[in-house]
Every structure is written in structure tokens, then in C-alpha cells.
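Pinned message: reference record for GntR family transcriptional regulator
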Amino acid sequence: MLQLIAEAVNDRTARGIAAAVSRLVRDGTLPAGTRLPTVRVVARELGISPTTVSEAWRSLAGAGAIQTRGRSGTFVLAPIRPRHRMRYARLTASPATLPHDLSTGVPDHDLLPDLAPALRRIGDTRLTPSYLEEPVLPRLEEVLRERWPYPPERLTVVDGALDALDRIVARTVHFGDHVLVENPTFPPMLDLLESVGAVPVPVPLDDEGLDPTALAAALTHEPTALVLQPRAQNPTGISMSAARAAALATVLRAHPGLTVIEDDHAGDIASAPALSLGEWLPDRVVHVRSFSKSHGPDLRLAAIGGPAQVVTAVADRRLLGPGWSSRVLQGVLLDLLTDPDAVRAVAAARAEYARRRVRLLTALAGYGVRASAADGINMWLPVHDQQVAMLALAGHGIAVAPGTPFEVGPLGGDHVRVTAGLVRDGFDELAAVLAAAAGAPRRASGRRTRALRRGGR
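Predicted structure (C-alpha cells):
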């Protein structure tokens, strides 16, 4: 077995070793249950440092390919990843058990545009004359291109933002690759990277987006991709400024092999204008625009725009699966994007979400709590102890998402994510409860905390 591993390794970096062992696992050469040689034995055979082999083993373990069982050794695992291991599944254990669920990260249903008029207007239009038609309705593509933050070489539509990210990652990221991600970031993105055996490298944020200096330092890992959220970053709500985007593009120009994947998940409910690094790096940026939070989660639609090499590969691969996203739903989306009443409804939702964020941030500031919720529907709340805060809030009937699944590396303290966009009223009362759970001192006035009004969410 040691000889098999040694012969398979043609790149003696940690990434190369992990990729070689992964291939042996995938093709059955190393079946489930196989005990691997020790780190020192492999290192001696390859003539490299044990630290390099240890890093490769960590990558494989993180991807669920192997498992170390103490003194018993390290073993190949069956290719099964239990759902409970996913970060996504840990955001909330039982979302329906508490009356005020602010853990979900979903939009307020009452602020979504009404789909009924759009459904009536498109009627029984025959939108699919052939299975090999273009995947996007021609008029919808025109409208999407008009709204795109830069002219994309190719554009297609898929079944939501996560479907888009999954397909883009499958085309651009391989086992052992290093991928730069925001810290904190959206947990399912980390699950996706883990599923392909990639290694996430955290890059910190400030109030304008990714830190350019930290990005430059992270590029020493020779990453293949950078994943970022240009607007209403989940969980912090940070939106990237135009000046910051230009600065990041300058840093990235020196690394032409890197693909930038942008997840504009908030779309039309974001207060910040649409922005993309594609304005500076159009041949390297794949931009995803979701319509779930702005027009309806059940539309399950998102657009991908970027280099034809990536977008065409995604569209062609879908021919062997779903083929295309429902053209009926595409027709509904087209109607919603062009109907004046629907456009006004989305604009009103955007303004209302902004009002709710400001009201809750202002109320929290009265307790000396500085949370992050500059845009979108989420709030990133610092707390002294995550578990204590969540238990305290549960005692008031409030569910929030734990901060740990969002973290790629140390953040200098605990956090929870609060879906501020679901809070309709009772801002002062909720702020008092959140501040107390966070460990903030009581207001000097000593005003007693009232229970949340039953009508608020």
C-alpha cells in the first residue's frame, strides 16, 4: 500500500498528496476500511517533512475521505457524509419550536411581490418548443443583461443561488485546492468546498468588504478561487464599496489563474447598488444574482453571468440533469422584473428592510451593543458566550442562528446571527432581550424589559 501511494504522488506538496490519495480512494484502489501508513512512514518514503503529510491527511479528513482513530490508526472512510456534519444543518436544530424564529435568514413573506397577477398574465404560453432550446427565455436574458453590473460574456439561469454555487464550484475547484473565503461566511459555501475536498482560507472583513492587505497575504496559498458576497454579506450585512472593489481588483490582477465567484444573494432588496469585480476583471469573475429574497424563495431562480468557458460548461452539464430551469417560472420572473406594480413592491420591501435594520441597530446602541447589519436582512451580533446567549434568548421564545457555523477561523469573540428583516415591531423590547443575552449592561434608566409583543416576529 505504501508503494501504491508513493507511485500515485507526482506532486509532493500537501495538496498533491491529498489529491493522489483521493484518486486512489475514488477508484477503489484504497477501499473503505483500509488502514493507511503512519504520517512518518509516508513522509520517509516520499522524502518530505511529516508536517506536509499531516496537512494532506487533515485535508482528506476534512473532506470525509479518511478518519484518524487515535492509536488505532488512520482509515479510509466510505463516501458517506451524514447530514448532521453539515454546517448548514447546524444553523438551527428545530426551527419550528420557538414562537419568534429569527434564525432562518429568509425574507418576510408579506414583503414579497404577489405572484398571482404574473401567473395570470403569462397564462398557458408555450415556452418550451424543444428540449434543446436555449436555457434562458430571450427576453429575460435581455432584462438580466440590462441589470447586470458589467457586460457578461455568457449568461444562464439555474435553480437558485446554491444550485449556481454548486455548479460553479464543480467546474472550477478540485480536491486539495485552496479557496479564499470571507470570514465569517455563508455556511453552505463551506459545506460545498468540503464536499469537493477543497481547503477554505479565511480572509477578514471590515466595513467596506474584504481587507485588501489580508487578501494579498492569503494569495500566498496559491488559491484557485475566491468566493465573496458583494452586497448584504451573510451574516454581517456588509456591502462592498466601489473603492474597495477597485482595490481588490488591483491585488488580484497579479494572480491570473484565480477565479472570482460572487454571490449576490440579496439582489433587489439590497440597499447598496449592484457591484462586481467583473467591472475590472470580466474574464475571471463569475457573478451570481439570486431572486429568492427579493421575489420569492419558491421561484428557485438565480442567474449566472461571466466567462463563456465556465457558464457554457454549467449550462451544458445541466442538459444531462434538469436540462433547464422552468420556463414558466422564468416567465413569472420576467413579468415581476418589468411590471411597475411588482417593481414598486420590491422597492417598498427594500425600504422596509432598511427601516427595520436601523430601528433595531439604534435600539441596541442604547445598550452599548454594536452589531453589524448595514444591508440586507441579517444582523451579526457579538455576544460574550454563544451558547449562553442562545439559551437566554430561547427562554424568551426567540431562536437565533449560532455564529460558529459561519466562522472559518478565529474572529476574536462569539456571535449569533439574527434575521432582523423578520422583526416587524417591538424593536425596543427585542433590543433589551438581545442586549441582555449578549452580556451587555442594563440601561442606566433601569427600564424593565417587557415581553415581545405577540404580533412581532
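Pinned by admin. Summary line: Residues 444-457 have pLDDT under 50 and may be disordered.
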